[in-house]
Amino acid sequence: MSSSPQLYSQLLEYLRQYSRYQDLRHLKVLAWMVTALVCSGQLSLPAWEPYVSSRASQAQSYERRWHRFFDNRLVQVRSLYVPLVMLALSNWQGKRLYLALDTTLLWNRYCMIHLSVVCCGRAVPLLWRVLEHRSATVAFSQYQPLLRRARWLLRAHPDLMLLADRGFANHELMSWLQASRWHYCLRLPCDVLLHGPRRHPIELSYLWPPKGEALLYSNVGLWQDGTHRCNLVLATVKGVKEPWAVITDEPPSLQALWQYALRFRVEELFLDSKSGAFGLEDSRIRSAGALERLYLVAAVAVLYATTTGLAVQLEGLRRQVDPHWRRGLSYLKIGLRWLTGVIHKGRQLLRLVPLLVRDPQPCFASNRAERDYYDQIWFSRVRSLRCRTP
Fold this sequence. Notes:
Blueprint: H1 3-18, H2 24-40, H3 59-70, H4 77-88, E1 97-106, E2 110-119, E3 122-132, H5 140-153, E4 160-164, H6 171-180, E5 183-187, E6 193-195, E7 202-203, E8 213-222, E9 228-235, E10 244-248, H7 255-261, H8 265-276, H9 288-314, H10 331-344, H11 367-374, E11 381-386
Parallel strand pairs: 1-4, 4-5, 8-11
Antiparallel strand pairs: 1-2, 2-3, 5-10, 6-7, 6-8, 8-9, 9-10
């Protein structure tokens, strides 16, 4: 058996064992597409032909096969993918799960709303939705279905924290989080009106602390009515252009800044999906539904390669694919390099492992990068203040 069908066989068995599907042909096509994506590193349909075994003799036949999959409404993205990511989170019972909510634009025409799990220095896709929308700012009604679905899927996890940027801080989301009993770290825009830090309501931009200082406010009221109460951390973080204003339901501390910083892991996921690993924007697909199914291929590849990278790390084989003395590549890149070696160098396929709660070896490309990471959130003065109650 050649290496490419060997990789396909493991993927197909992986999908058949855990995914919920209506037609086995859907799984076979998906397994071939993920195999071709891992081998080629491109989400470009013409680039997949050399890595797929089929009776077809024309390249156009392969592309028609992929397009039939992407245009098929019977292909249920969540039914195929969610069981895989839930299996990968099987070791997280009783541990805090960080969920990052963010959006990214494709060709300034489509907006992808993305909810991902932060673990081991990166983010892994959980749920996503594609809209024909020319702005990265979306209404609460557009991403509420993702949050409701995540709440149901993760109902056995009592400790969940949502991380999101300024575009998501609004009345509806705050009410939903309080009703769902989720923890949160959200960044506020600078023009938000605050109740409590002064005698009268004041705009957030007037409260920035001096450089090198942090302010911790308890019981702050938000927006014009001031009905939503939370805790607020204001700080100017080293290496960041603009000050941070992070609200949380937990006691205000510098820990809130560290937790909010985990949100940037999803930016690295977007980078891998678009240009760092797969080239999402190279695809010729221009349909919201088809793009959701195309991203299914990328999400399965990310999860599959990441768990393979973890297996490589646990087996002590990382130095075969990572030239750094200590880990300098993400587990996604380690997994992709190992799987490429399966194709070209005859390496053995490893047994997949669940996502790890604790990173066995944090990733830093250099000693300087490690120092910069740990020295980034330091302040010469930290003040704690309790706001006035109405």
